[in-house]
Amino acid sequence: MMLSKGHPIRTYNSFCIRLFSCKPAISLTFEQQNKVNSIVADIRSSGNENSNDDARMRQRIALSKAITLVESKSPSKRMMADSLLDQLRMSANKQNSATSFRLGIAGPPGVGKSTLCDAFGQYILNFIDDDTSAKGDNQEFIPDKLAVLCIDPSSHVTGGSILGDKTRMSNLSYHPRAYVRPSPSSGTLGGIGAYTFDAVSLCESAGYNFTIVETVGVGQSEIELAECCDLFVLLLAPGGGDELQGSKKGIVEVADVLVVNKADEDLETLARKTANEYKKAAELLRKPVGWWGRSLDQSSECESHHTCNQSAVPRVLLLSAKTGAGIPELFDTIISYRKYAQKSGYLLEKRQKQNRYWMWKYLKERLLETTEQDERIKKKLIEIECDLDNRLIAPRSAANMLWASVVGDVNRRD
């Protein structure tokens, strides 16, 4: 069937083609390509505890440079980042999804996220060092390298960021098999940075098979971390809500595990009360059986975890990052989830959905940035903003006029 001249699909496709082809294609210089190749080679190096100090340091520096590239907004640096990611993707082990795990930790400001990351990271890495510990079923997955990506809020006034989360992880930062990287949110809403997903992939390419993503202090609606991790842990403070608060939609509904922190000293009684309140509310937050909660034998009776009528209740745990109480239970919970999610295929399906989510997110950002840089649109924008300032049009009408000027020009060109 022929498409009419003003068909919306043709208009949108023509707009995208014109928008991205208005400038000549940028190619990497010989020097830039050599720099990318050098970073890739250093990231591919082992960098494990058996390696010498120079090899580990080269890999750390290369990984830091790679994350800086993917976070850059410079067109040339973005081209280098694309080449870097493509090379690492082509050479990546196809079993990455089976040998790595991504843990997301979110919570309000001051709840103890950084302190938990430091204590939890040391606990995981000490499994290999401690030969006398009874590991039990945990022998199936004991991470030998761990990365922590801390997202620090950026100022809406100056655009700067303190990047101080690493100061609360002084012990973990010096561990030879740990990598701690603070990054600014750069004004991105949702609790994480715009390119945190790429940073996680880079850490996995460097052999870090357990990555923790710590968000900025979040509220009820900042749930994008769920699109960047395998297991979403929501950290709560004692007295941080009652049963009604736990029943509200938003971040509590998305979280896979609810953890009440600071269950020590004078706050232990209050922490237990808070945990009990959330356990009651969790009964209303049932997730499909593909999530977890059932034994593997029981879940195999269902033809699909999408159609099974059974459901699981999110776990609610008590923990003290200060004393270490509850950390082994949290690790056991993660191991149980990972074992089930892998065998049921839920983990692979979840990562496939996340890849599609970030594809569309990157496309939207690229469309917006390219539109803002278009000289013709800038001229029209001045007129529309003038009418907007004089209250001649509403913001919604101004947006419609701006979009009409973009697609209208495409129709005239066609």
Summed up:
The chain has 414 residues and is of the alpha/beta class. Helix content is 50%, strand content 11%.
Task: Describe the model.
This protein is of the alpha/beta class and 414 residues long. It folds into 3 domains: 66 residues, no CATH class; 251 residues, Rossmann fold (3-Layer(aba) Sandwich), CATH 3.40.50; 40 residues. Helices cover 50% and strands 11% of the residues. The protein contains 16 helices and 9 strands. The strands form 2 sheets. It has a 7-stranded parallel β-sheet, with helices on both faces. A two-stranded antiparallel sheet has the order 7-8. Helix 7 links the parallel strand 2 and strand 3. Helix 2 packs across helix 4, helix 3 packs across helix 4 and helix 3 packs antiparallel against helix 8. The two termini are 18 Å apart. 35% of the residues are buried. The N terminus and C terminus are likely disordered.
Q: CATH top level of the largest domain?
A: Alpha Beta
Our measurement of the CA-to-CA distance between the termini, rounded to an integer number of angstroms, reads 18 Å
Order of helices and strands: HHHHHEHEHEHEEHHEHEHEEHHHH
Strand-pairing-aware structural class: alpha/beta
CATH architecture of the largest domain: 3-Layer(aba) Sandwich
Oligomer: single chain
What name does CATH use for the topology of the largest domain? Rossmann fold
Please state roughly what percent of the residues sit in beta strands, choosing from under 5%, 5-15%, 15-25%, 25-35%, 35-45% or over 45%. Answer: 5-15%
